[in-house]
Amino acid sequence: MPDFLLSRNNAGRLVLTTEQGVVHEGITPVRAFPVTAPDKLVAIMSAEGKEILWIDDPADLPEDVRTLIHEEIASRELMPEILRILSVSTFSTPSTWDVETDRGGTTFILKGEEDIRRLRAQTLIITDSHGLRFLLRDMSAIDKHSRRILDRFL
Questions:
Q1: Which residue among 28, 38, 91, 146 sits deepest, i.e. has the most Cβ atoms within 10 Å of its Cβ?
Q2: DSSP 8-state code for residue 41
Q3: Are 58 and 64 in contact, with CB atoms under 8 Å apart?
């Protein structure tokens, strides 16, 4: 059982009440490592941006608390995961990419090859011309066509 209470107020904002009875309104859960450890290590931040609470593994929390944390994180985070690369306009940059993501199809402009950043051997973050980041979690898991296109840029 956690030593805190997590709930939503009438305005829909998260409220954390500590074991000592201290109430923190407008708190924000933040993943410490959203790409490499998305299901572990969450900090609960105050409205002023200070860490109030650290959670090593949200899976250890009761279902209702875990759900509140997950819902709040999902409402703020946007990093679509690329599932397939359908086409690119040219193999030089800037180029327009047509991709399928876990949130649907989209098109973005890759300004330069430096906007493709390797996090691990098979994991990439691709940043479009507007600063939106796309995650390619596992290059070895994408289809051959997508891999051939990606290889031209790496």
A1: 146
A2: -
A3: no
In the structure, what pLDDT confidence band is assigned to residue 1 with cuts at 50, 70 and 90? Answer: low
What are the E-state strand segments in the chain?
4-8, 14-18, 23-25, 28-31, 42-45, 51-55, 82-88, 95-101, 104-110, 116-120, 123-127, 133-136
pTM: predicted TM-score of the whole model, two decimal places: 0.64
Cα(43)–Cα(34) distance, rounded to whole angstroms?
Answer: 12
Dist. CA 63–CA 57, nearest whole Å = 13
- Per-residue pLDDT tens digits for 8-59: 999 889 999 998 999 999 999 999 988 788 889 999 999 899 999 999 999 9
**Strand ranges across the sheet with 28-31:** 28-31, 42-45, 51-55
**DSSP for 97-141, written as a single string:** EEEEETTEEEEEEE--GGGEEEEETTEEEEE-TTS-EEEE--GGG
